[in-house]
Amino acid sequence: MRARRSRSSDHGLSSSSQTTLPAHLRERLGEELQVFYAYVLSENQPRHLLGLVAQLSEVLDSQDAAYAETFRDELLAVLPRLRAFAVSLAMDEAQADDLVQETVIKAWQHQESYRPGVNVEAWICTILRRLFYADRRTIKREAASEFSADPVTTPPTLEQSTDLRKIWVALTNLPPVQREALVLVSAQGMTYEAAATRAGCQVGTIKSRVSRARAALAGSLGVPALRLVTGAE
Question: Where is this region: Disordered (predicted)?
Fold first, then answer.
């Protein structure tokens, strides 16, 4: 009987070749990812995104000033994390900014489903990830007819940091669903349960994606040394 070949990007490694990293290596890899994610999170927000929030607030002001102020404040509060999440999905700052802009507009269009006190970050990040994966299916960037992948480009702001640039390239080479799972769990510190809720999948699926992503990333970065950001021996 011919063995069935998995079509899912979750199964880039066979179950027999999947690696479970030792705890100390998982911790070290998590530290590297947290430093990287903190760097992305600390970047100044593009002016056009801030301007978009201001424009939407002006429209809302004409309807309900108090509601508009609350909604605007909630959007501004989550904007850095929303953009960082978009960057971790797209691994391209221009695409991430477009994605955030589309997400903010979509959130504004569905403002009736917003209620003060709800978890705005979870709500708006769900909108963003749906748009991202719908976009990927539509444009089919990774079409089977392509003979080679486009070269990985890193943001100009990373040019002065060889260590962060290595992490960027390694993350870019992961399948998006694995990269997302790894960022949610190892960089953002979510539990598997919370990450599964965010990704809309089973807890076991998230665990599998994280495990495969860790193994692939550790291989790309060099598990024996792992001296990238922290410089630890």
Answer: 1-21
User: Taking phi first (over 0 means left), then psi (-120 to 50 degrees means alpha), and beta for anything else, what does residue 226 get?
Assistant: left
For the chain, give the longest Cα–Cα distance. 68
How far apart are the C-alpha atoms of 185 and 206, rounded to whole Å?
A: 9
In CATH terms, 19-139+154-221 corresponds, of 1.20.140.160, 1.10.10.10, 1.10.240.10, 1.10.10.250, to 1.20.140.160
Contact between 103 and 51 (Cβ < 8 Å): no
Q: Where are the domains of the chain?
A: 19-139+154-221
For 200: left if phi > 0, alpha if psi spans -120 to 50, otherwise beta; the answer is: left
pLDDT tens string, the chain, 233 residues long: the values are: 444 434 444 544 433 344 566 777 778 788 888 887 777 777 666 676 667 666 766 666 566 666 667 777 888 888 888 988 999 999 888 899 899 989 988 888 887 777 767 788 888 999 999 999 998 776 655 444 444 445 445 555 555 556 778 888 889 999 999 999 999 999 999 999 999 999 999 999 999 999 999 988 888 887 553 443 433 33
CA distances (Å), 20 to each of 35, 142, 176, 189, 227, in order? Answer: 22, 28, 20, 19, 20
